[in-house]
Write the structure tokens for this entry.
Amino acid sequence: MPIARKTDSPFFWYDFRYRGVRYRGSTKETSKAAARGFEAQLVAKLELGDELPVKGRRAPLLRDFLPQFLASFVQNQLRAQKTKDYYANGARLLLNTVLSEFPIDRITTSTVAAVRFPHSGSNANNAIRTLHRVLSHGVERGFLCVVPRFHLHEEKARELIYTPNQEAQMLALLPQPANDVFVVCMDMGMRPKEVCRINLLDDVKWLENLLSVPDGKTKAAKREIGMSERVLEILKRRARENAAHPWKKDSPWAFTSSRRRKGLIRHITTVNKAFAKAKRDAGLPEDLVLYSARHTFGTEFMESTKDLKLTMKTMGHVDVKTAMRYQHPETGQVGDVINKRNAKRKSATAQNGHTFGHSTLALQ
């Protein structure tokens, strides 16, 4: 039974349920121990059959309270934009669950534990963290006294990377513009969102064969990456297609959206639907997503260059721990590496007149 002091009151407040009915109000006590005693007396009265008035304002449904929370959060100048985007996405996820029909004071630990969130564990945790922040706002507004504890889901790290055969399968099935986005992710190691907003006028240095990423998810996201031949050809083709289009000729975007809003020319934001369909048609694993192309680049680039610092700089990573999540080396390579090492040692020892490996002498 939670006992808590409100920010605008010197007294402790009780907040408990008895046979499905919620009772809450001020204990008029400034000592927590005395407040608990007051609450215990109320419960004892209920056990004896007495009736207590149900106090306090009726808490709103989650779906009605979410817009209020988001409005206050957007106005918060201390929050970074990516944090606001994170909670906005969490609110969207919550609206698609049964929790949206619950009054915010009736959302409990067990209630949330019974909800199945779509897609990955990180998606579920996005919604749960948002819910915790929403209920904290409810405490500030006086609709409840404490926020229940919620358990986060296990987040599975991405382990799959594209084999050459899987890449060929996807390129054969992906329509445009998803096809080109996939290629750029594979060859440049860029995040899909970074690819979708490539600006042909500001980001592409045609003579230097460089592509600039102006900003992104981390402090190191701003970077320049050398373009592969097929990425260069894709961007040249897209520039030609824009120039030949009736209204896209005014677009600076490599991946211009086919829809205009209020006359504004925008870039695409996702190709996930087209990608998911092509993956199903190819019969590829569910865990092999578009973002796996970035993991493929990170693994192969590090394997080829053996330069961790360059790999981190190219991919826009801030710390080594993050960079290591993108490394998926094949353990089958160990045997090949050791065989090459042993061959070099055997050659060196033979030149010095020594034997390499086990002694040829019989055991005594």
In short: The chain has three domains: 3-47, 62-140, 164-324.
